[in-house]
Write a structure and sequence with these properties.
It is built from two helices and two strands; from the N terminus they run αββα. It is of the alpha+beta class and 99 residues long.
C-alpha cells in the first residue's frame, strides 16, 4: 500500500457506510457519545497494537447509535480477526493468551 490515497493506512476498515444509515435527530448530543466511544476505541486500539495486531488489519472505530450513545465497532480483515479470536479463546481457556 502507498500513501497516495487518503485511506491507504486504514485499508478501508473505517468505512462503515450502510451499517446504519440514519438521519441525525435535532437535539441529540451525538458528540458526547462519540467522545466516550473514541476513548474506548483508542484504548482497545492500543491493546490490539500491544498484542501485535496492526491498525491496517484490525481496529476499533468510534461511532454513535441513533440515540447518541457511544458505540465501538471492530473492523478488520478476516485473518487478523481470526488471530484476535484465537487470542481471546486462549485467554478464556486459561493458557495465558499467547498467539
Amino acid at each position: 500500500m502507498s500513501g497516495s490515497d487518503e485511506n491507504w493506512l486504514s485499508g478501508g476498515l473505517d468505512d462503515i457506510t450502510g451499517i446504519e444509515s440514519v438521519l441525525w435527530v435535532r437535539g441529540v448530543d451525538y458528540m458526547a457519545g462519540w467522545r466516550v466511544a473514541r476513548e474506548s476505541a483508542d484504548r482497545l486500539n492500543r491493546a490490539l497494537l500491544g498484542v501485535g495486531l496492526e491498525r491496517s488489519e484490525v481496529r476499533a472505530v468510534a461511532s454513535t447509535d441513533e440515540e447518541g450513545r457511544g458505540v465501538v465497532r471492530l473492523a478488520g480483515i478476516p485473518d487478523a480477526v481470526g488471530r484476535l479470536a484465537q487470542l481471546l479463546e486462549a485467554l478464556a481457556d486459561g493458557d495465558g493468551g499467547a498467539l
